[in-house]
Amino acid sequence: MTRTTHSIQGLALGLLLLFSAPLWATELSPKQIQAALDKAYTQYKDIKEGANADYIPALAKVDPKLYGIVLVTTDGSVYSAGDVQSQVSIQSISKVFTMALVMDESGTAALAENMGVDATGQVFNSIYAIEQNKGAEMNPLVNPGAITATSMVKGNTYDDIWNKILGTYEAFAGRSLTVLEDVYRSEAETNQRNRAIAALMAAYGRITTDPLRATDIYTRQCSVGVNARDLGIMAATLANAGKNPVTGRQAMQAENVPEVLAVMATAGLYDDAGKWLYQTGLPAKSGVGGGIIAVSPGKFGIAVVSPPLDAAGNSVRAQKAIADISNALGGNPYQVTPR
Ligand code: GLN
Question: Which of 38, 72, 89, 338 is the most exposed place for a label (fewest CB within 10 A)?
Fold first, then answer.
């Protein structure tokens, strides 16, 4: 090899390093990240749109002013604004983590072949969506698919199954979690519709265990108490290939994370999932307790807790704050710099 070839190669390598590094590294300073959170917090603190969910009576009693934002980067740095301590019930955000558990236990095909992995375009507790395709062509993030996913968690007893579900949520959050008993009781007394949904999913052979037991475990999983910090860390664990960036513990198999994020992207905000993806590009999941988590793969997880919801059942402040913060920080995974 001649000296000229060497130096050309050296130059090429140098240029490659020089120009490729900024494309991959997170270039944001802690100050910029904190400023984005503070701005969204202040901007949306006093808005009055939306209303707490009240079809579960206990949710109507939660302070509508509660508002907290947490962003956690994949290197484990935690940023926050507002109330990040007060707990709300996790509600439908739990569906993401039960889906992850079922994928880890039974493979990603198990869910796709049973209830499906497609958006319904219907509200989250739609019975019409079940009837349309005999309990298929839907996904584990709407109630029929979610109760079915819960029924697919392996275990000999109620407690075996429950402990596995709670243990999974705890691995994602990085701390011990408990059920908010008042929320659980309130929903258990009023969940006739979910019981009907589970019975119908059993009639179509999607649920093969006792549908009432599956509904009860599902109701319990929805009542787990979490704060904005917990949800931010759970989201960041998904952003970090299933490894909790704060505890360093692998909470789910890395290879299944893309499938989890795909269902979040298409169905995480129910029938508004498309609008949300259009605005942010982020896989996300909302719950009627007022939380939303969103994931910028490889970069950060973000969560906002604020109970007042819009007509689709998604937190009003959470949607606005997450969209602003992520867009300010370059969180949209579809947005790249041309080479
Ligand atoms: N537990 C609630 C229900 O089943 C969860 C719904 C939600 O958060 N969208 O109705």
Answer: 338
Could you give the domains of the chain?
24-329 (3.40.710.10)
Nearest in space to 184 (alpha carbons), one of 216, 147, 231, 143: 216
- Check: CB of residue 276 under 8 Å from CB of residue 252: no
Distance from the CA of 160 to the center of ligand 1, in angstroms?
23
Indicate if ligand 1 lies below 6 Å from the C-beta of 244: no
Q: How far is the CA of 227 from the centre of ligand 1 (A)?
A: 17
Nearest CA to ligand 1 atom 6: 92
218 lines ligand 1 (CB under 6 A): no
Count the residues in the chain: 339
Q: How many angstroms does the Cα of residue 254 sit away from the middle of ligand 1?
A: 27
pLDDT (mean) for 216-238: 98
**Mean pLDDT of the region 46-66:** 96
User: What pLDDT is recorded for position 8?
Assistant: 53
Query: Is the distance from the beta carbon of residue 288 to the nearest atom of ligand 1 less than 6 Å?
Result: yes
pLDDT digits (tens, 9 = 90+) for 242-282: 999 999 999 999 999 999 999 999 999 988 999 999 999 99
**Interatomic CA distance for residues 183 and 71, integer angstroms:** 26
Backbone angles phi, psi at 118, to 5 degrees: -115, 150
